[in-house]
Amino acid sequence: MLAKVQIFSGLTESELSFLAQRAVRRNYSAGQSVFGEGEPCSGLYVVESGHVRIFKSSANGREQVLSIDGPGSSIAEL
Length: 78
Fold this sequence. Notes:
By secondary structure, the chain is an alpha+beta fold. The chain contains one helix and four strands.
């Protein structure tokens, strides 16, 4: 899966294997929050299946969808 992620596209098989051995698989239910705006992010997330909605909330609770990312997308790489 990691080989399909754009930011890892230039890595060798050995480098991908190194990352894969340290990756932690997490499962989230539909509608479950991975992390919120302003919260610390514990690492880089790669979407293996399903979709992740990235949004920003205004003070009045209105949500602005910034992107919807699917399989092969990386999240929180900054």
